[in-house]
Amino acid sequence: MSIVSLLIGQCGNQVGSEFFKAIFNDNHGDYNGRVIRLDDEFANESIETFFTVKGEGNNWALGYLLNGPLCVEVVNDLLMAELEKCDSVDGLITTMSLAGGTGSGVGTFLLRHLGDVCPKVPVLAQLVLPYRRGEVATQAYNAVLSLGHLLCASPGEAPCGFVLHENDLLHRACASRLVCHRRRQTYGVVGPLDQVPLVELNRLMAHLLGGVLQPYTRSSCGYTLCRRRLSRLLFDLAGPADYRLYRLHCLPYHPNSEARYFATETWPQLFRHARQLLLTGACLEDRMNWCVSLDNLRGHRRQPLLACAGVARGTGAGEVLWSELTAGLDVEGVMQPWQVNASSPMGMCTRAFNGHLRGVFLATNGGGLVIEDDHTDEASSTDVCAPLRMVRSRAWRLFTSSAYLHQYAQFGMEDPRASLLEAFSVVEQAIHLYSQLTTS
């Protein structure tokens, strides 16, 4: 089965590049990558690309209202050409950032029109949320406008699901793992932790996605190879159309290849950590709160898991019991018209992934902990809507001061205030729907 990738903007191209490197390094072979690259800064490439001379100026309106309609036909032709080369299409993965103008503006326009080209192809969108204190003044506006247009669309007009990546969490995870390696290289002199190359964040995102999409077997199929892995992932995470926000988790993660050979994790240890990771909603082990349990949430409110899919990789992967991993964390007891299939088996592969002798990769819809009145930028909540609340709060502070609204008016947005208010309402609705699932 073939998976076609659509990489939009500088961030999307960089993350996609690391994703294909991770797949190639995991199992060397002769592969043909099905990828369309789109950026508004020119580069000389020989693969299927579409570039323009200048960027979007970090302006969502310029990308969505002006340049998006200009490039949609060309991109659709490139996409159709790649799809026609496939014997069987498993799905489409798009990757873009919500901070700048190309990813948020042009990317949102293209995602809204993918149904015209491939109406029956499953689509998974990777959305990279900006730093809480990023260098783009309008990044909060751009993120809210993109989320407002994507979340309000019906499943036929928008991706089947959205994987959210938070730059701050990825940065913190990479910094804590690289500090020891840097200390050895600099003989004990360590620079500030904020000096983490962006390539490390891209590698972590590639590791998370590659871990759930590389080949594996499922016991429900008689331990046969799962060929439609992207479709299977979207099917396992699917719920009502209003609940399409997903997150990826993994453990362990060692960016330094030398440390992987000295890993001592056992399957019982990884099982305990994975269960605590699902309870706390952490991406990696860094933000797991071991003081919290199902019996004592210590002032938090728990958001139940709507759905969960996972893959165990390494020798003895069959030791992980799927039903016990998610027991007590699903929507049992919450009055909803759907139920999670808790007996759904975890995928497994006895071969190590990218040098990690043992590893567990999880994809979740819902889950995490919520703190009451958590309105600060340094939010402590770990539920899937925590980044949405952060972006909404920062954009609302700008909006109440009418800051930067003229930047959008000059590129075709007739009433920036009305457009932003509509986007705010969509984001608020998504936050409200997930909050209704919260159990004490």
From TrEMBL:
- Top-level taxonomic group: Eukaryota
Q: Where does this one sit in the cell?
A: Cell projection, Cilium; Cytoplasm, Cytoskeleton, Microtubule organizing center, Centrosome, Centriole; Nucleus
Mention any Pfam family matching this sequence: Tubulin
Q: Which InterPro entries match?
A: Delta_tubulin, Tub_FtsZ_C, Tubulin, Tubulin/FtsZ_GTPase_sf, Tubulin_CS, Tubulin_FtsZ_GTPase
Please give the biological process terms from Gene Ontology that the record holds.
cell projection organization; microtubule-based process
What is an example of a GO molecular function annotated in this UniProt entry? GTP binding
Ranges for domain Tubulin/FtsZ GTPase: 20-220
An annotated GO cellular component of this protein is: centriole
- Give the matching CDD domains: delta_zeta_tubulin-like
Write out the entry's keywords from A to Z.
Cell projection, Cilium biogenesis/degradation, GTP-binding, Microtubule, Nucleotide-binding, Nucleus
Function, in words: Acts as a positive regulator of hedgehog signaling and regulates ciliary function.
Q: Which family does it belong to?
A: Belongs to the tubulin family.
Write down what this protein is called. Answer: Tubulin delta chain
The scientific name of the source species is: Taenia asiatica (Asian tapeworm)
